[in-house]
Each structure stands twice: as structure tokens, then as C-alpha cells.
Amino acid sequence: MIIELMTSGFFLKAFVGGVLIAVVAPLMGTFLVLRRLSMIGDTLAHVTIAGVALGFLLQVYPLAVGLIFALLASFAIERLRKAYKTYAELSIAIIMSGGVALASLFFTLGKNFNLNVTSYLFGSIYTLTDLDIYVVAIVAVIVLIVVAVFWKELFLLTFDEDAAAVSGLPVRALNIMITVLTALIISVSIKIVGALLISALLTIPVACSLLIARGFRQSIIFSVIIAEIAAIAGLLVAGVWSLAPGATIVLILITILIVTMTVKRGLKI
Amino acid sequence: MTIESSTNARCHQDVIRLEHVSFDYQDQSVIRDLNFAVQQRDFVGLIGSNGAGKSTLMRMIVGLLKPKSGRIELFGEPIEQFNGWQRIGYVPQKNSFNPLFPATVREVVQSGVYGKRNVARRIQKEDIQKCTDAMDVMRIADLASKRIGQLSGGQQQRVFLARALINNPELLILDEPTVGIDIETQHDFFQLVQHMHQHHRMTFLMVSHDMDMIESYLGQEPAQQSGKLKFFVKHSHEIENCEAVNLSHTLTVRETESL
Hints:
Order of helices and strands of chain A: HHHHHHHHHHHHH
Radius of gyration of chain B: 18 Å
Order of helices and strands of chain B: HEEEHEEEHHHEHEHEEH
Distance between the termini of chain A: 42 Å
Oligomer: heterodimer
Helix content of chain B: 25-40%
Structural class of chain B: alpha/beta
Strand order of the largest sheet of chain B: 6-7-8-3-10-9
Shape of chain B: globular
Largest interface: A-B, 27 and 33 residues
């Protein structure tokens, strides 16, 4: 059954896409979670669907329009965060509802275009095209290179933004870089896990690794391993029993989290 | 004689200089027309009640905030042009980091060398050695691979001190370093800082809420008062020898291990 799955083209593409996203999503997610920006993934994802829908309406490559929307949204969030310094969550709530509103507007406009809403909300990993896979692979390579090159700076920024500023690091530029990379990852993973479930891949592996990792490097490695286990197992389980792949991956992630917490608590007592 | 006088000249150079510095927070004046200078090898203690502007002042001196008016100089250069941030070690408020944060002691201490000079470059061998040395001096080498959140408050303080010392700084800025630490550990920490002041060629600026500790080392009379801010100073000439051992020298001979 599994061999059968693996040899079918659509499943193989799904597999490659899933594995790639499971490397970069928790990697970037670590920086987001540790900087208390967990919700930003969700927000950008909702805005990205609006962009994807508009892309369909305009007959432009939807992921590209989605990416532009995500980038615009991330800068808008930064703006609002500054305007409401002490109530920074407001920015996330505003942009998220704005994104959903735009998306539903475009979806109603696009009824005649045969726009499938659910495939963007919950992902449609089996309909990935060759172009989609190339785009995901390019994004993954970009993210890995940037994180490897700026590893030191990203660590210091995440651990202690003030110290980063005092030692003369370009804090603003680094923050923008994190935002842009996050927007990139989210827009390419919309088709794979779906807009509603992306933040699971960004945050749950990190939540697990925070419980067990001692250091920063270790935490990132653990979160990627956990995401890979969930992605691979989820895709196989979903393929064999014809379940929704995105949902299966997320539920496996939550299971891993519960097991980790239980084992950790068990060991402590 | 000539050597001595040139040494003296070097001793009394202004490390930090504030001229007519004012700062407003939401239309309320926090700091008004402050003039103050910290000279080389001085130990300056800064005391003030909550809202007196201690943290604001510290953040202006390290360049995180811009004064509304006035002029700040570091090592004789206007702060806008100052580029020698590795000459300054900065120990942040203890509770400025999340105890759940996954970082090992080594990762935190090592981050002291990350700066403008080496953006996007790999960590060098000598940087790793510097990190090991700084951990040795602070006697936290055996904790190197522990998660920082698991350490006691006093140990965490040593980690941040090691991070601040890794570049062998000329100026050490400590922002309420002992908040939330038990009395005994606070006392040890002050001992350590005082020892460093007396034996190394370093200038200290410390914000503290602990009047007793400040008074016991810096005397009861503030050298200067500005609004609710009180500055206590021990000048370099009050300690034996201006030409004291350099920290890098100590790092190699491990003199402070007897601390």
C-alpha cells in the first residue's frame, strides 16, 4: 500500500512538499515563538488566502499574489505594533480580520471562477504542481541559507534584543528579514497544510522542543525532527486511510506534544 | 614622573559625558538638563526611586534611546558617531529574559562577541577561546551546557557578567543586576564587582536599588543629585593604583580564580 502510494506522482509531490515545509516552518517558528510572535503566522496566513483568491481572479500565479499580500500585511502589523505599543496584540487582531474579510469578498466574487475555498483553508497537498514544488524548494533553500549566514545575529536578537542593539547589530533590518522569511514560508505552505493549520507547523514542534531542549541549536534541531516525524507519518496515515493530510499532520503534532508533556512530567515525579 | 603624569591623564579621561541631557516620556519630563561625567576607572552608583529615570538614563547611554535634547559622549566621541561598542560591557536587568528560553550558558556567553564587526561571519576559534576564558573567570565553566533558565539567580548573574566581560571591556554598565536575587547572593555579587573595580582597569556604572550596598562602597553622600536621581562615585584616585592589571592579562594568568 505504501509502495503504491510512493510511486504515484501526486503523492510523491505531496511528500516532497511536506518534507520541505516541515524543515523550514519550525525553523522560522522557533524565532517567532521565542519572540512572542506565535500568532503572526496565523494572521499572515489569513491575509495570504486573500491574496491567493485575488490571484485567481486576476489569473496571476496565486502564490505570488499571496506572498505580496503577506509581505504587505507584515509591514502593516509592524506599523500598528508601533502605534499601539502597549497593546501590540491589537495589530494582529486587526490584520487577521481584515485578511479574512478580503478573502471572503474575493471568494464571493470568484464564484464563477470555480474557486475552491476549502482547498486553501485546509490545504490541498495532492494538487501540488511541479511549479509549486520548485517554488517550495527555492523558498526552503533561501530560508536555510539566510538562517545559516545570520545564525549568530538571529540568536542574539531573539535572546536579547536590547543587547543586540547595544552591540550595534542592525536590529531593524534583522526584524524585517524574519518577517519576510515568515511571509515566504507561509505563502508557499498554504497549499500544503492550509491557511487554518499553518501556525500548527510553526508553533507546535517548537512547543515540544522547548520542553526538552537545553540550548538554542538543540531546540531548533528537535523542532525540525518533530515536524518531520509528524509530516511523514501524517502523509502516510492520511494516504493509506484517505484522511485529510493537513489535519492528520496537525493531530499527530498535538499527540507528540501531549506525549512529550506526559513523559516529562512522569520523569520528574 | 612623566610616565606617571601621562598615566594620570589617561585615568581622568571622560568615559561617559552628558551635557544638558533631557528626556520626556509622553510629555512628562523624566530627565531635565542633566550634566554628568564618568571618568576612567570611576565606580558610579546610580540610585533613584521608580520612575526617577534610571533605566531611561541607562538606555540613553547605551544608545537605545535618544535624548530629547543635549549631548552624550562615549570615550570622547558623540554617541551618534560612536562605533566602539565592544569597549562597553552591558549587563541587563536580570528579569529581562524568559526562564523557558532554550539557550545554554555557553550560547549566552558566546553571544557577547556578536556585533557589528562580525555580522554574517562564522564564529572564530579565538572567540570560542574568549568564551571559555570568560566562563573560567566567572567560575561557570562547569555549567557551560546547562540551560540558563535552570541556574540559580546568582549563577545567571555570573553568566551575564561573563558575557559582558568577554570583549575585555573598558566600561561595564550594570542595570539593576541583582533584582530578584537573595541577599546573600547579592552580597557576593557586589564583592565580585568591587574586586573587579579595584584590580582591573575598568570603569563601572551601576544602577541599583540597594542603598546599603552602594553606601558601603561609595559612601553616604551622593556626589551629585539631579531630580530624583542620585549619583554616588568612587573616583580612581581613591583606589590604590590606576595602572592596575588589565582584564585580558588576568584572563591568561587566571588570577581571579582565587576570588
